């Protein structure tokens, strides 16, 4: 016949209850059942923080500064990437026209050479 009522506390639990002056056994068991290792938790945390995306964007900015003509980088900066489209903000319509007409293919080629055509498939320039 199974015992009736809640399970009897162990001697450790009784000693802790007496020492603390309060019974936290139920709370400790509830906390212990929800414990997960950092190894299992970190991928979810990094996913929620979108660290891969942020790391990729930081890498694009670094390559942008190092491989694109300084006269262009002085007037145009990457501001984000979404579904293969790199968004670049240009400081004036004159520079926007210059880049779109004469330098777009060169810039796209250099970025695709560094990151591949999957990551940077297109570039969208806008004045901002």
CATH superfamily of the largest domain: DnaA, N-terminal domain
What structural category arises from helix and sheet content? alpha+beta
Topology pattern, helix = H, strand = E: HHHHHEEHE
The biggest beta sheet is recorded as:
3 strands, mixed
Q: How would you name the oligomeric state of the polypeptide chains in this document?
A: single chain
> What is the average of the pLDDT values?
85
Strand content: 5-15%
CATH topology (level 3) name of the largest domain:
GMP Synthetase, Chain A, domain 3
Task: Explain this structure.
The chain is of the alpha+beta class. 59% of the residues lie in helices and 15% in strands. It has helices at 11-20, 25-33, 38-49, 51-67, 70-73, 93-115, and strands at 76-82, 85-90, 122-127. The protein has a 3-stranded mixed sheet with strand order 1-2-3. Helix 4 packs across helix 6 (93-115). The longest helix has 23 residues, at 93-115. The chain starts with 10 loop residues before the first helix and ends with a strand.
Helices and strands in order, then pairings?
Elements: H1 11-20, H2 25-33, H3 38-49, H4 51-67, H5 70-73, E1 76-82, E2 85-90, H6 93-115, E3 122-127
Parallel strand pairs: 2-3
Antiparallel strand pairs: 1-2
Helix pairs in contact: 4-6
Question: Can you give me a brief rundown of this structure?
Answer:
This protein has 128 residues and is of the alpha+beta class. It has helices spanning 11-20, 25-33, 38-49, 51-67, 70-73, 93-115; strands at 76-82, 85-90, 122-127.
């Amino acid at each position: 016949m199974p015992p009736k009522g809640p399970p009897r506390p162990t001697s450790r639990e009784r000693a802790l209850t007496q020492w603390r002056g309060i019974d936290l056994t139920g709370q400790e068991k509830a906390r212990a059942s929800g414990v997960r290792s950092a190894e299992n938790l970190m991928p979810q945390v990094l996913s929620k923080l979108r660290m891969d995306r942020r790391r990729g964007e930081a890498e694009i900015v670094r390559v942008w500064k190092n491989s694109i003509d300084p006269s262009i980088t002085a007037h145009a900066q990457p501001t984000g990437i979404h579904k293969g489209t790199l968004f670049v903000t240009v400081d004036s319509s004159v520079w926007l026209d210059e880049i779109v007409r004469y330098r777009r293919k060169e810039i796209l080629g250099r970025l695709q050479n560094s990151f591949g055509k999957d990551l940077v498939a297109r570039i969208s320039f806008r004045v901002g």
